[in-house]
Amino acid sequence: MRTLRELGDLKGKRVLVRVDFNVPFDDAGNVTDDTRIRGTLPTLRELLAQGARLILVSHLGRPKGHDPKLSTAPVAKRLSELLQTPVKLAPAVIGDEVTKLAGALKDGEILMLENVRFEAGETKNDDALSASLAALADVYVNDAFGASHRAHSSTVGAARLLPHAAGLLLEREVETLTEVTQTPKRPMVAILGGSKVSDKIKVIERFLNIADELLIGGAMGFPFLAAQGHEVANSRCADEDVELAKSLLSAAEEAKGKLKLPVDLVVADRFSAEATPVVVDGVDVPEGMMGLDIGPRTVADYVASIAAAGTIFWNGPMGAFEMEPFAAGTKAVAEAMASAPGTTVVGGGDSGAAVAQFGLADKMDHVSTGGGAALELIEGQKLPGIEVLS
User: What number is the average pLDDT over the span 279-295?
Assistant: First the structure.
């Protein structure tokens, strides 16, 4: 990838920066999790220090047309607070008024465009929208790793029409995740959880070949247990995932990776924070119950693997961590990683939310800002928003 260092002098240049500010906010317009905004601050500060004139573009949710509830106004407000400098909000994504505002920018000033998905052409990588976005600036910088697995106008189309480079966050994301899969410090331990085997089958296959240990938790574990003949009762377990799990278990016998499954569980009679957790010393779920967390013996085993690892990659919770009675497994993994001597990488998504919830994000070496993008990069796929920066 081309980097910021290769763009030369940016003083007086208008720089279109694709950021991923797809963040949650409340009805009062207050951003409730600004992790993604903070992640791109080094890039923005570097560009501002060079005297660049910034035009920021991001998506927010999945609006159908212009939806005031998904305006980037709260994002502009929070960014202004973090940078301690004014961030102007454009009334639209493109158009005469936007062009006028972009042209009037002075060195060190920032203009935030409206939600780029207000334009129907964004997700179609429409040539006309790409050209209109590119016409606003002299240079393009992509710092939106979380959106770089999409071939959209703001991630690919505009980049092709301008001198371009990766921002500091995007550069770090790619370097860190590439190191995890290509040159990890050994032993390399991968921890995968979440809900469905089918969502992460390629990631599981990749880690079977490159990890020294692959630890499975969360609802993803039940198809593997069912494939081994265990009772899963009311646990989340799709038939197609059981078939996939059978093939992965066969592959695990021959692959380098050592696949580990839970040896005990925490179950309950319903998916509710009010349900009473019951520890099952084994992996057969009693009739009428559902598995909602890994058990204490599994926790101890997984924590020991993390403590001895040279590199740890984690994506997917170990249970229903959003409910306090079933958060112990996920919290234990997060705490073990926070104190581990090895390199710790959290693959975004729910895992990123979990370490933030437990106040441990700053204890990790890297928390990815892109769940889907991180997994696709791990799988070995080419991400359009990164390939265009070559």
Answer: 97
CA distances from 342 to 303, 306, 346 (A): 13, 8, 13
pLDDT above 90: residue 372? no
Q: Could you say which of 117, 196, 206, 236 is catalytic?
A: 196
Quick check: helix, strand or coil at residue 343?
A: strand
Cα–Cα distance, 57 to 122 (Å, whole number): 11
Residue 7 and residue 9: Cα distance in Å, rounded? 7
| Residue of 18, 36, 53, 117 marked active site | 36
Question: Which amino acid belongs to residue 353?
Answer: A
Q: Hey, which CATH number is domain 184-379, 3.90.550.10, 1.10.10.10, 3.40.50.1260, 3.90.280.10?
A: 3.40.50.1260
Question: Which letter does DSSP use for residue 276 in this model?
Answer: P
CB 112 within 8 A of CB 72: yes
Name the one residue in this structure whose structure tokens are 């939600």: 115
Select from 193, 319, 328 the least CA-distant residue to 260: 193
CATH domain 4-170 topology: Rossmann fold (3.40.50)
Confirm whether 4-170 and 184-379 share one CATH topology. Answer: yes
- Beta-sheet strands, E only, within 146-272: 164-166, 188-192, 213-216, 258-260, 265-268
Active site residue 36: yes
**349: annotated active-site residue:** yes
Q: Is 256 a catalytic residue?
A: no
Known catalytic residue at 363: no
Average pLDDT in the chain: 95
Sheet holding 87-89, edge to edge: 87-89, 110-112, 53-57, 14-18, 139-142, 164-166
Question: One of 121, 349, 371, 385 is an active-site residue; which one?
Answer: 349
- What residues have CB less than 8 Å from 184, skipping those under 6 apart? 210, 310, 311, 343
Going by C-alpha positions, the residue among 324, 356, 363 that lies closest to residue 342 is: 363
Q: Which of 51, 108, 310, 372 is catalytic?
A: 372
pLDDT digits (tens, 9 = 90+) for 126-161: 999 999 999 999 999 999 999 999 999 999 999 999
- Which residue, 82, 134, 83, is CA-closest to 113? 134
CA-to-CA distance for 145 and 137, rounded, in angstroms?
Answer: 21
